[in-house]
Amino acid sequence: MHQVCREGDEIQLPDLNAEFRVLEVPAHTRSHIAFYGENVLFSGDTLFSLGCGRFFEGTATDMQASLDKLSALPADTKIYCAHEYTQANCAFALKVEPDNPCTTGPAPGKSMICGLKAKSPYQPAWLTNWQPIHFYAPVKTA
Questions:
Q1: Which of 25, 40, 57, 76 could form a disulfide linkage to 46, CB 3.0–4.6 angstroms apart?
Q2: What is the phi-psi region of residue 139: left when phi exceeds 0, alpha when psi lies from -120 to 50, beta otherwise?
């Protein structure tokens, strides 16, 4: 089945008694989408544990807007991303910001991600844990 999906469309999965809303999240590609529903986000190649997708067709501005949109979802949202790059992203974050207490101290990042053994399952991630430790998290000001 092929169906063109746009922002706000609803996808029904009657066999699972589930419904998902389409979110346009351009940056990886101009037409990239994610699905949110049932307190679950399928983020595709936009959001990863401690990382985000590459920009093939979009811009950094597009990616920031997409991450802002995803970060506005409820904090207890479970995140399933398209690929598992958690260990590599953690190593990168620790190399770039070795003194960042969010990845090195007793913050959620240490116990939830960076302290886990390689080959440990990382998905789902939770948005509430993602926001304070994510290397590309939207910047918030007081």
A1: 25
A2: beta
Residue 125 maps to which CATH number?
3.60.15.10
Residue 112 lies in a domain: yes
**Is residue 17 in some structural domain?**
yes
What is the pTM assigned to this prediction?
A: 0.77
- 38 in a structural domain: yes
Peptide bond into 124 cis (omega under 30): yes
**In this predicted model, what pLDDT tens digit does every residue of 51-89 receive, in sequence order?**
788 889 989 899 889 988 998 999 888 888 888 777 777
Flag whether 18 is in a domain.
yes
Token pair listed for 140: 């918030």
Domain with 63, as residue range(s), is: 10-133
Residue type, 54: R
